[in-house]
Write a structure and sequence with these properties.
Blueprint lengths: L2 E14 L2 E14 L3 E5 L6 H8 L8 E10 L2 E2 L5 H7 L4 E4 L3 H4 L6 H13 L3 H14 L5 H4 L9 H13 L5 E5 L7 H18 L2 E6 L2 H4 L5 E6 L2 E7 H6 L4 H8 L40 H5 L5 E4 L2 E3 L20
Helix pairs in contact: 4-5, 5-7, 7-8
């Protein structure tokens, strides 16, 4: 498969009265055409800021991308002029935001909000864009789409609003769809429907997807590869089955240990990760996970490990090999 996206050394910071918030710290990853990449981590780890930086949606001031390259189809998106990035945003790169109620304009019909992108990027007239809007609403499973195209966001349920957001993201047949925690505000039944819908549309349309979430369970059956972020850094990346079956970073192991299992009786309590993430204004000198890690050694406090290979497509930023460390407990995900 051809390379679609290549992120190199991306750094994003926010300049505030309290100091410089180092939200994204030298992250690099790639994405091939038609591939699905899952980015996971707890709130505040830099997942959303990282992808917003790709398409230049960071509010400035106070935010700024201070270093890095974002190569998309051979172009560095960070060097494009404002009108050039606008022609890519919403056209070649679609976006599904986290909360559809705040992302949709409450005073415009959903039909108008979808057709606007069709008229702007594809040059459709109002009649053709309306017809295409109805087709998109049908594609994402909105019942009686022709009757509902002139309804307002408040007339839709949470799950239906998220389907409208997906229709907006897909309106111009993007090569890349970025989904920023699109199921967070929904109940688990609707979550499953949205994930199945995106998977179906991906297979039909052949687009690449970056799916951001804090829930490893949501992306297990969707992603091809996974990136785990902590304190604005990538601490582990691997093919999805490898990550679930052989996690090598203590943070990843903690995330997986905190998930309930439905396929077996589990006598012990779910694990929790003690402590709090570091202050992004004053990051520690060494590993950012040091204070919360049960495997830590003295070196971890003073030196931050870089990402190194531990297998095919599997990288981890850790000084400890938890496969060989005597503290390691049995990994309940080894049979996934």
């Amino acid at each position: 498969m051809a390379r679609l996206l290549d992120v190199k050394g991306l750094q994003t910071q926010f300049f505030t009265q309290d100091g410089v918030v180092k939200a994204v710290n030298d992250i690099s990853y790639t994405l091939d055409e038609g591939e699905t990449l899952g980015i996971v981590g707890e709130s505040g780890c830099g997942k959303s800021v990282g992808v917003m930086s790709l398409i230049r949606l960071i509010p400035s001031p106070p935010g700024k991308v201070v270093a890095g390259e974002v190569i998309f189809n051979g172009q560095d998106l960070l060097k494009l002029k404002d009108n050039e990035i606008r022609s890519i945003r919403g056209n070649k790169i679609g976006m599904i935001f986290q909360d559809p109620m705040t992302s949709l304009n409450p005073v415009l019909t959903i039909g108008r909000q979808i057709s606007e992108a069709l008229e702007l990027h594809l040059g459709m007239d109002k009649s053709r864009s309306r017809k295409r809007t109805i087709e998109l609403l049908e594609l994402v499973g909105i019942p009686m789409a022709a009757d509902r195209v002139d309804d307002y966001p408040h007339q839709f349920s949470g799950g239906m609003r998220q389907r409208v957001m997906i229709a907006m993201g897909l309106s111009c047949n993007p090569q890349l769809l970025i989904a920023d925690e699109p199921t967070t505000a929904l109940d688990v039944t609707i979550q499953a429907q949205i994930v199945d819908l995106v998977k179906k549309l991906r297979d039909e349309l052949g687009m690449a997807i970056i799916w951001i979430t804090h829930d490893l369970g949501v992306v297990a059956g969707l992603a091809d590869r996974m990136v785990v972020m902590y304190a604005g850094m990538i601490v582990e990346e691997a093919p999805v089955k490898e990550l679930y079956g052989n996690p090598r970073h203590p943070y990843t192991l903690g995330l997986l240990g905190s998930l309930p299992r439905l396929d077996e009786v589990r006598d012990e309590k779910l694990e929790s990760i003690e402590g709090l993430p570091p202050d992004l204004i004053a990051l520690p000198q060494g590993c950012p996970f040091y204070a919360r890690c049960k495997y830590r050694i003295d070196k971890c406090e003073t030196e931050n490990p870089s990402l190194h290979s531990v297998g095919v497509g599997h990288g981890v930023a850790c000084w400890i090999d938890i496969d060989k460390d005597p503290i390691t407990t049995e990994n309940p995900w080894t049979e996934v």
